Amino acid sequence: MTVKFSSKEIHFLKKDSDNFKIKPPETYFSDLLLTKKNRIKAFQKKLSEVTISWNNFLCAVLELNSDRSESIIKNKKETLETFFNSFPDHKKGIWKCLSKTSFIMAFCGYESEKKAANRLVSLKEKLSTAFRTEILMGVAKFPCHDFSKPQTVVNALKAADHAAFFGPDTLIHFDAVSINISADRLYQLNKYNMAIKEYKKGLEIEPNNINLINSLGVCFGVMGKLDNAKLEFEKALKINPNEVMVIYNTGLLYQINGNLYQAIQCLHKAHDIDDCVFEVEFLLGKLLFKIQQFDRAMAHLEAASRINPESGLVFRIKGEIYLAKNQPEKAGIEFNKAVKLNPLDAVALSGYAKSMLLQDKNLNIAISLAKKSIAIQPANSLFKDRLKAIMKKIEVHASQEEKIKSAS
Predict the structure, then answer these.
(1) Which regions does the record annotate with the repeat TPR (predicted)?
(2) Would you give per-residue pLDDT tens digits along the chain (408 residues)?
(3) Which of 169, 223, 312, 390 is 20 to 30 Å apart from 404, CA to CA?
(4) In 10 A of CB 407, how many CB atoms?
């Protein structure tokens, strides 16, 4: 599960396309639709100008594994030209280069989809042999759903992105997951309105796809359209009442709206279903801390730190709990962990300084930490009060030492 939200500390849960076991690609073919539209439009125009009947056709995006030596693919264009011209029915197909290592093609005139699919597999294998490298391929067909011929070209790009998640020697046919990946990419680029259209299009193909419904809700959520988000999460829960990420997101909406007890109730339900989700344990601990149920909060925060020991936020809140319980030494230990993980955590820096003040030790270090917290958040009055208290304590010590010297 991955998390995204406009806040730095609270996040909607979302099963993104980067949940595949293989890392997502560094570059996306679908980005060409945003950055190099002319290349795609040129092929779409070429497709529209074909004189033969194209009532049904397949479009494929292919990429040669760029990890191979440049010398292997330096004569790519000539090799491809020769290769396609060797097909008896090559006049029923068109192709165009997209980059040094990728190209797009379309062909028609096949007897059945099965034979066409077999032909693509054969094409992939022959090209792989010719170039001595792996071939990635994304395929889209026309007709499909209500997509137009130009949109079929776009769908092939999305299918290629889908294939890229599984490695360089993969062939994927366009489906709802391909749309989900495309929408997630737009989401990552903060193009939320475009992402919403994609998620909705995916739901036209798979109306009960919980990932798409939840992702649509998250998109509405980060845009501040909380009522729309709530409706989507409710739809998802009707399909599966025990889907943890949706229960969590519903709880998060309650929390955003200030309904802490309803939020806690949702989070407890999510915890009962799966107690190994970091976001659930962390937010549940944080909200229990807010309503001053410290011991219950600490139990969930401990669980969160076991799941993700690299989260400084967990240690920071544990430190705040120990401050509230007047246990400054334990608070200092937790704040120290938080600051090591995030040296710019102003709350942890100030809390660490406060713990030293309460222990009446290392006050010069405490002043340094307090000043750093104010440098990060200059308008925070609590941080300023803590700095004044530390300085006053130092003055008291100095005055006492002066009196001792005078007496001597």
Answers:
(1) 176-209, 210-243, 278-311, 312-345
(2) 333 343 344 478 877 655 555 567 778 888 888 877 788 888 888 887 776 567 788 899 988 886 654 555 556 666 666 666 655 455 677 888 888 788 888 888 677 778 777 878 888 888 888 778 888 999 999 889 999 888 999 999 999 999 999 888 899 999 999 999 999 999 999 999 999 999 999 999 999 999 999 999 999 999 999 999 999 999 999 999 999 999 999 999 999 999 999 999 999 999 999 999 999 999 999 999 999 999 999 999 999 999 999 999 999 999 999 999 999 999 999 999 999 999 999 999 999 999 999 999 999 999 999 999 999 999 999 999 999 999 999 998 888 877 777 776
(3) 390
(4) 6
SS3 of residue 270 by DSSP: helix
Two structure tokens written together for 129: 């042999």
On whether the CB atoms of residues 63 and 136 are closer than 8 A, the answer is yes
**How wide is the angle at C-alpha 204 spanned by C-alphas 200 and 206, nearest 5°?**
105
**What are φ and ψ of residue 147, in 5° steps?**
-75, 140
- Yes or no: say if 334 and 322 are a contact pair by the CB < 8 Å rule: yes
CA dihedral sign, ordered 357, 359, 360, 361: negative
Global pTM? 0.84
Residues of the chain with CATH 1.25.40.10: 322-408
Within the chain, which residue ranges are assigned CATH 3.30.70.270? 13-174
Dihedral Cα 45, 51, 52, 57, nearest 10 deg? 0
Q: Are the CB atoms for 56 and 141 separated by under 8 Å? A: yes
d(CA 250, CA 214): 10
The dotted CATH code for 13-174 is 3.30.70.270
Architecture label for domain 322-408: Alpha Horseshoe (1.25)
The size of the chain, in residues, is: 408
3-class DSSP string for 69-119: CHHHHCCHHHHHHHHHHCCCCHHHEEEEECCCCEEEEEEECCCCHHHHHHH
Cis? peptide before 25, omega within 30° of 0 = no
